[in-house]
Amino acid sequence: MAFKPADNPRHTNSWYAASAKDKRVRPVLEGETEADICVIGAGFTGISAALELAERGYSVVVLEAERIGFGASGRNGGQIVNGYSRDLEVIASRYGHEKAVKLGEMSLEGGEIIRGRVAKYGIDCDLVHGGFFAAFTDKQIREMADGKAHWEKHGHTGLEMVSKAEVGKYVKTDRYAGGMIDKLGGHIHPLNLVLGEAAAVESLGGRIFEGSRVIGLDTGETPVVRTDKGSVRAYYVLVCGNAYLAPLMPEVHGRMMPVSSQVMATEPLDARLIESLLPENYCVEDANYILDYYRRTSDNRLLYGGGIGYGGNDPKDLTGVIRPNMLKTFPQLKDVKIDYAWSGNFALTLTRIPHIGRLSDKVYFSHGDSGHGVTTTHLLGKILGEAVAGHAERFDIWASLPNLPFPGGRTFRVPLTMLGAWWYGLRDRLGL
Ligand SMILES: Cc1cc2nc3c(=O)[nH]c(=O)nc-3n(C[C@H](O)[C@H](O)[C@H](O)COP(=O)(O)OP(=O)(O)OC[C@H]3O[C@@H](n4cnc5c(N)ncnc54)[C@H](O)[C@@H]3O)c2cc1C
Known about the structure:
Blueprint: H1 15-18, E1 31-40, H2 44-55, E2 60-63, E3 79-80, H3 88-95, H4 97-106, H5 109-121, E4 128-135, H6 138-153, E5 159-162, E6 178-187, H7 190-203, E7 207-209, E8 216-218, E9 224-226, E10 230-239, H8 250-253, E11 257-266, H9 271-277, E12 283-286, E13 293-296, E14 302-310, H10 322-329, E15 338-348, E16 355-360, E17 363-367, H11 374-388, H12 393-399, H13 409-429
Parallel strand pairs: 1-2, 1-10, 2-7, 4-12, 10-17
Antiparallel strand pairs: 3-6, 4-6, 5-6, 8-9, 9-10, 11-14, 11-15, 12-13, 13-14, 16-17
């Protein structure tokens, strides 16, 4: 299948890159420079931290190997999903009630940060409110209802269960047995969001360098970050390279596994057709272990994601899994053309909880949002910024959560994780 060509070099060939509002290319770092804080990676985590610090008056340099939003942040489904990749009751049972309460208090904050910055800096990123979680089975509906009860204990009032008869209000398909809406969820054009936040960093005096891959880091008392053409001396360094960090810092990237997910965008559809598929313009994700996620775009395309590649390998046929899934959901789209298809990597941890910590007194890191990162990265980026500004209370709560290595070492961690995923996928297919 032939897709539209890339017109935004070094970004992946996505609809996002083609419709980016800000196509400026930032300079490459050349020579030596200094800053209070040097951030490695210009995705949501790095840019969220940089913006928090720039707002607090610190001088910030961000070094990005490729382009701002090159990684998962500029490629994802754009779904604003509240909470974490593990439910709060799982967090309570693993880490205790007190930590669950603290994480619960922060669990809506990522979405608030996004909405607040979009308003404050006038970021044009197609922000739409409302998300729908789709259930295939009664078991999934019961799990959603339990999750809703737990959420409400933590102050989330935007959730409502949806019966099978009401599903058509949100999505026109007969695949689902019911679901739940989250009025505090929603969707955005993620690349335009991160580009808008990056421009906000620059408006406050921050400097961002693209095409500036970090190849060395001295983690001493005054850390020095090196690229092939320059270096940054800083009081603090924040490592925010997530699934794209390798081979830098094996002690960080060895604790996560890159996992790919695929996304495609149809040609623009007739307005009446796309409105009939998703009448409320909510984004949708289903409750399966390997899930489908989809939504409308501002130019009336259907943007549909799913599929999975453990180890971060892209499938040869990018639409091989997701197009058949789209047709199961919306058979009426069988003749629709797919204009763009791409793949991106997120970072999975064994616990599915983000991994935050310190490599030294001066070098901090955050990664591993495990698939649901649009809100979490905004929260954790802010928390990284708070920590180096001298308020590490929230950072220390996250850093205290144990991170475990994947079983099987480098050779067997991918096949072992695939085996586990196959088992959970089989349970979904059998409706267990
Ligand atoms: C296809 C896909 C769909 C997704 N859909 C959703 C969704 O709908 N909702 C949701 O909540 N989450 C979703 N996610 C997850 C979410 O996108 C991520 O959790 C989040 O964007 C991670 O942000 P990040 O800043 O930590 O990492 P990234 O966005 O990957 O940014 C890391 C950056 O660091 C740079 N970098 C790495 N190493 C270096 C180096 N040595 N020197 C300089 N720069 C370096 C990379 O080039 C990259 O730009 C999805 C992920 C994928 C891949």
